[in-house]
Amino acid sequence: MIGEFKNVLLKKEDNIATITLNRPTALNALCNDLNDDMIEAINIIRQDLDIRVLIITGSEKAFAAGADIKEMMDSNLFEAERTSEKAHFINDTLESLPIPVIAAVNGPALGGGCELSLACDFRIAGENAMFGLPEVGIGVIPGAGGTQRLTKMIGAVKAKEMVMSGKMVKGREAYEIGLVTKCVADEEVMEEAVKYAKKLCQKPASALQFAKSAINYAVDNDINTGKRFEKALFSSCFSTEDQKEGMKAFTEKRRPEYSNK
Ligand code: CO8
Q1: What is the ipTM metric for this complex?
Q2: Is any atom of ligand 1 closer than 6 Å to the C-beta of 111?
Q3: Which spans in the chain are helix H?
């Protein structure tokens, strides 16, 4: 364990960090304290250059059942804005981390919990995971990027169905509509996430980082600016030792040994 906070656990094994949401009495509802813990945990990860992949998970029972409704219910406009701002900050930081981030999801990933998973690069879900943005049903809308990320991910038709009608989707359907990367048996979620993370660890870090930036850029920008951005990143690859090693290994018909420089 490299960090133990009130509502979040942070461990590191090999080059893989895992943040476990740990507020079992409220199905990991994202209260203000939990969000503060997340910010601290992410800061530790940002400073540890040995960490190559981050996994975010909850428990076998729940990923996260959303923002803490009981804490939020009496918020005024300014307090609601601060809650939303903090959640956006966490999700934006995860999205722009220079390493891949995997959400390993069992049980409900609702509201803010779903939005947290959408900010990750990969979602590995159990058959009985349940993704949903049910906020409209309690008089609000998603406030941590959900309307934007979900729409870009699965399109406006399906996003409107989930956000406006409150339709929830289980793991298999989430996979079929392009919301999750992989759907596995519930008990295999964490094992699969670690397997996925280990595979990513074998790739050169800078190429992975550039690939993540380029794809994220495509989501938010027009294609011509995106192509210019891609060209700049592609050329930057040629200033890395890993590009030299990757291409040399190919010509020598051997496995590359990356130094991640
Ligand atoms: N907030 C606070 N407490 C919660 C939440 C929540 N979102 N979800 C569950 N809990 C608590 C319950 O109140 C209950 O506590 P207690 O035992 O003290 O009564 C405990 O967790 C267990 O929950 P249930 O008894 O309800 O468990 P069930 O298995 O019957 O139901 C559900 C599980 C379906 C997940 C159900 O709990 C539920 O519907 N929860 C609310 C889901 C929801 O509406 N989420 C959206 C919240 S709004 C939101 O996320 C806005 C995002 C804004 C930006 C992000 C800011 C961080």
Answers
A1: 0.98
A2: yes
A3: 32-47, 69-72, 77-96, 112-118, 146-154, 156-164, 171-176, 189-201, 205-220, 223-237, 241-251
